[in-house]
Write a structure and sequence with these properties.
12 helices, six-stranded parallel β-sheet, alpha/beta, about 375 residues
């Protein structure tokens, strides 16, 4: 009898967890035993709701174990050196304690290649296969980076002189290697480098749940909010100006704004003043929210959101989807090159075509 393979999943976001479930539920070789799955959730201690949501979502896999490991301090936070060192060492000790209790994995399934936590985890098992799940626009960045690490458009996302990485190595042995070979598990139209593999999927597992349900439609528009301001992709004024045009586009229709989990509360107050109805905060991936909803909106819209691509695969032509393309000066430098590439992917990708509405020529009265 064939030996069961051991999978170690490591995720940091709800979408990564959704894709981890798809990976584990994909069809297996006939007669092969089900893999033994262990999961790690990397989550900041200050975000207990996110941690709880990820654990509950991964519970659908009925894993033997799910462990929560605190992340290293974020780049954009200010840390007093002794405090930062203590938190980095806390991460190293917590991860070591978890790994001591599980067998050496045959596969490491990562949700985020850019994350220090995930890359360090992969470095600890150099002989294990590494699989990378889709994580929105980050997947496109990573595929391009692995083809050309010197791509100037990617410099802000993959700094070449990462002095903080040296501190992590010194304080807690946190290694951040360039993983020699990995497998992309993706539905995106990617071109990985020759040393990587690509397993294409079409959300077969999650689509089976969609196909099994018939649901009524409402007459409202669901608009997916973005954390572009919080991530310094654009200014608050540009973001709100773009939303003002979008609200005018829909005229008198009811438009429900679903906040991104990282959006600031004061910004949402300004969005509401534009005429949007702000939905209650919910960390659940919008893809899963709509898969399990008792009714579906008349349309789902956003600005360059990868959720639109995912929903196009999940729902096909049974759900209307719209991508708004903002003004040319919407994105801050130096991220403008990458952002324009992502918008072009949404607009021109034949695998999942979307309705496209350009805002550049539309006045905002």
């Amino acid at each position: 009898m064939a030996k069961s393979r051991t999978l170690l999943l490591a995720v940091k976001s709800p979408l990564q967890a959704l894709n981890a479930i798809e990976y584990c539920r994909r069809p297996q070789t006939r007669g092969a035993p089900a893999p033994q799955v262990r999961t790690i959730v990397f989550c900041p201690p200050r975000k207990p709701r996110l941690s709880e949501s990820l654990v509950n979502l991964l519970a659908r896999l009925e894993c033997a174990e799910t462990h929560v490991v605190p992340t290293v301090p974020g780049d954009r936070q200010w840390w007093e050196p002794r405090t930062e060192r203590r938190l980095v060492q806390r991460f190293g000790h917590a991860l070591s304690d978890v790994l001591a209790s599980i067998p050496t994995p045959d596969e490491i399934v990562l949700g985020d290649y850019r994350s220090r936590e995930c890359r360090h985890l992969a470095s600890l098992f150099p002989r294990s296969e590494v699989v990378l799940l889709d994580d929105g626009s980050a997947t496109h960045q990573i595929a391009r980076f692995r083809r050309n690490p010197r791509d100037p458009k990617l410099a802000p996302m993959f700094p070449s002189n990462d002095f903080r990485a040296l501190r992590l190595k010194l304080w807690a042995g946190v290694a951040l290697p360039f993983i020699d070979r990995l497998t992309f598990f993706s539905h995106y139209a990617l071109t990985p480098p020759s040393h990587d593999r690509l397993i294409r999927h079409r959300y077969e597992f999650w689509r089976s749940l969609v196909a099994a349900r018939q649901r009524p439609r409402t007459d409202e528009v669901l608009f997916l909010g973005m954390s572009h301001v919080e991530k310094n992709l654009t200014t608050r004024d540009r973001y709100l100006g773009t939303l003002k045009k979008i609200r005018l586009f829909y005229n008198t229709r009811r438009v429900v704004y679903r906040p991104h989990r990282d959006e600031a509360a004061d910004k949402l107050t300004a969005v509401q003043a534009l005429g949007f109805i702000i939905a209650a905060p919910d960390i659940t991936p919008v893809e899963l929210l709509l898969i399990e909803a008792t009714s579906l909106p008349a349309e789902v819209a956003s600005i360059a959101s990868s959720a639109l691509d995912n929903l196009a695969i999940l729902f096909g032509d049974t759900l209307a989807l719209r991508c708004f393309t903002p003004d040319p000066d919407y994105c801050n430098a130096p991220m403008s090159g990458h952002f324009s590439d992502i918008v072009a992917y949404h607009v021109g990708n034949p695998i999942h075509p979307l309705a496209v509405s350009a805002l550049a020529d539309q006045p905002a009265y």
